[in-house]
Amino acid sequence: MSAEELHDTAASSNDGSQPPLPPVEPPSAGFLVQLFLVPGVIVAIIVSVWLAFHWLAHLGSDPQAYLRTLRRGGEGRWQAALNFANDLRGPGGEALKSDPALATALGEVLEEEIARGRSGEQAQQLKLFLCRGLGEFAVPEALPPLVERAADTDDPETARAAVEAIAALTANMLAAGRQAAEAAEAAEAVQQASASDDARLRSSAAFALGIIGGDEAIERLLFMRDDADENVRFNTATALARLGREEAYDPLAEMLSLEDLPAGPDEQSQSRRYKRALTVVNALRAVALVVDATATEPPGMITSRIEALRQDPVADVRTAATAVADKITRLDG
């Protein structure tokens, strides 16, 4: 039946109370383009973006592909640097961590980026992730570019990333039984960072000094116990505890005295409560390190706080406090 016949049939069945139906017309070419072609283009764009990120996330099968991407320039290099660092940290990264040529090449990429003097968020992220990647190695070839960045306190954010990377790299080399010729320069750079006006950089330096160790690091940490910033004091306390020093007890007592915070509905209050619990648990673990190193009971100000924390509202704090209390009790046996 034709469109005209359909229209006539509809009109004849109309009793006059309703208007006749409009004639049926075939869809226009423009309508078909909007219906099929435009959604297809949108889908193609989405697939292309997904494939680009998928490609960046799987460069780890070829470390040289990372280096080529990092040296090419353009946006997205920070993502490649992040993926590279994560691959080094992952279960398949053990062989890469011991590759001196790869560490040297990554350090050259960092120095090239510094020489370019680029600014902006992506450029900053790239420097941070390059430092993080170098910190995952276990060979001394990764150390020189980090030492240079750590000493540049005019760029405290990159210096902080370099200091944290020096700590990680030092721990990796100690675990592998390696020693870097630049170890003294690294310690000096971290010492310099510990005197920065930037509190976050001082805090990271305190942590790194606890990994580096040595008489000079201990002397600097003893001075930093009275820092104006509590995060610096707390990192100093745990660093001294890692080195088995009883001088850690004074700042540790401050950490153990932090009271539980009321749980609010907003994310900020929950974050503050979580940070307090994490700080106290870290302090309890630090006390255990000093007890193990000295085989002596902590002073009364510490044991009394530990006993009180066995009734803390936070389960993780109660568990950690009970474990340390039991360790102290076994000393008497």
Describe the 3D structure:
The chain has 333 residues and is mostly helical. The chain has two domains: 151 residues, no CATH class; 87 residues. The protein is built from 17 helices and no strands. α8 packs antiparallel against α9, α9 packs parallel to α11 and α14 runs antiparallel to α15. It starts with a helix and ends with a helix.
Please supply descriptive tags for the structure shown above.
single chain, 333 residues, mainly alpha, 2 domains, 17 helices, 0% strand, globular, disordered N terminus
Coarse structural class = mainly alpha
Residues in helices, as a percent range:
over 70%
Q: What is the number of domains?
A: 2
Q: How many H/I helical runs?
A: 17
What is the gyration radius calculated from CA atoms? Answer: 31 Å
Shape: globular
Order of helices and strands: HHHHHHHHHHHHHHHHH
Tell me the distance between the termini.
Answer: 103 Å
Low-confidence stretches: 1-14, 47-60
Number of strands: 0
User: Proportion of β residues?
Assistant: under 5%
Largest sheet: none
Oligomer: single chain
Mean pLDDT over the residues: 83
Topology:
Layout lengths: L2 H10 L16 H29 L5 H10 L4 H13 L4 H4 L2 H17 L4 H15 L7 H8 L5 H20 L7 H11 L5 H14 L2 H10 L5 H13 L6 H8 L10 H28 L5 H10 L5 H18 L1
